[in-house]
Write a structure and sequence with these properties.
This protein has helices spanning 14-26, 52-62, 77-93, 107-117, 133-142, 168-173, 222-239, 244-248; strands at 5-9, 30-39, 44-45, 66-71, 96-100, 123-125, 146-152, 187-193, 203-211, 214-221. The protein is α/β, with parallel strands linked by helices and 265 residues long. The protein has 2 domains: 5-125, HUPs (Rossmann fold), CATH 3.40.50.620; 142-248, no CATH class. It starts with a strand and ends in a 17-residue tail after the last helix. The model is unreliable at 223-236 and 243-265 (pLDDT under 50).
């Protein structure tokens, strides 16, 4: 008997990536696509700030088609619901009857998703729901997931954590009371490797910027990114030979560290 066809709400981050891994292990549905909202003015994944090129590399590494839903910035709720309704119609046309979400414990978010899918013929599924988040975070890390903090709320966690790798060192540095999976919006991540991908995605650290009260760390993809960053580092070292930050500038993304070309504000 054929398994139900499913799309996964893909944010580019660790929770959606681990949802994909979990769904494949459980083998109850056939995940056939990734659904992502992209903020048009920036051409980036909404809220996570991840470039579309990196998003597309993730989909390729996962071996799945990517369904991009463009939204404006700011995006009124009625616009969001209209474009999502159009996406759901496409899902139905393609025989999709399940939608996977990486939500962990926020009841209001789950209830909203259930309301949006009510009457559509598409059933929402939450494979990670109710898992203790400390245990889940450690499972992701031990399972080979590699992710970096690409967005954080400096009102909730220290701004120095932007760009950090999602590992036990990061978990140890989170303020007391912070959810280790950041389910309360403390930070967002971008996954570059893990058991849900066929191969790791080569990335390089870009600039760190502050926008709308959030910090965003840019990730650049592949050989082109290395070339861009190498040029920026060489120029900075030439222009500021005695600057310690210029001397430390490197085109390589180090595990657990960020080497931005522009200082955090």
């Amino acid at each position: 008997m054929a398994k139900p066809r499913a799309w996964l709400a893909w944010s580019s981050g660790k929770d959606s990536a681990w949802t994909l891994h979990t769904a494949r292990l459980e083998d109850r549905v056939d995940v056939v696509g990734l659904l992502t909202t992209v903020t048009e003015p920036f051409d980036r994944v909404s809220m996570h700030g991840v470039r579309v090129r990196l998003l597309e590399a993730q989909a390729a590494a996962a071996g799945l088609p990517l369904v991009k839903v463009p939204i404006p910035a700011p995006c009124p709720n009625e616009v969001y619901e209209r474009v999502m309704s159009e996406a759901l119609q496409r899902a139905r046309d393609e025989g999709v009857t399940r939608m996977l979400f990486g939500d962990l414990f926020l009841e209001d978010i789950r209830a909203y998703r259930e309301r949006q899918l009510a009457g559509t013929g598409i059933e929402p599924l939450f494979p990670l729901w109710g898992r203790p988040t400390t245990e889940l975070a450690e499972e992701m890390i031990d399972g080979g997931l590699v992710a970096y903090v690409t967005c954080l709320d400096p009102r909730k966690i220290p701004r120095q954590l932007i760009g950090r790798r999602f590992d036990r060192s990061l978990l140890a540095d989170l303020p007391k009371g912070t959810d280790p999976c950041a389910e309360n919006g403390e930070f967002h991540t971008c996954v570059t490797a893990g058991p849900m991908f066929d191969a790791p995605i080569a990335v390089t650290a870009g600039d760190v910027v502050e926008r709308d009260g959030f910090l965003f760390a840019d990730l650049l993809v592949g050989v082109q990114a290395v070339g861009v960053q190498a040029s920026a580092c060489d120029e900075r070292k030439t222009r500021l030979p005695d600057d310690p930050q210029a001397k430390a500038c490197t085109p390589t993304l180090q595990a657990g560290a960020w080497t931005p070309t522009k200082a955090v504000p």
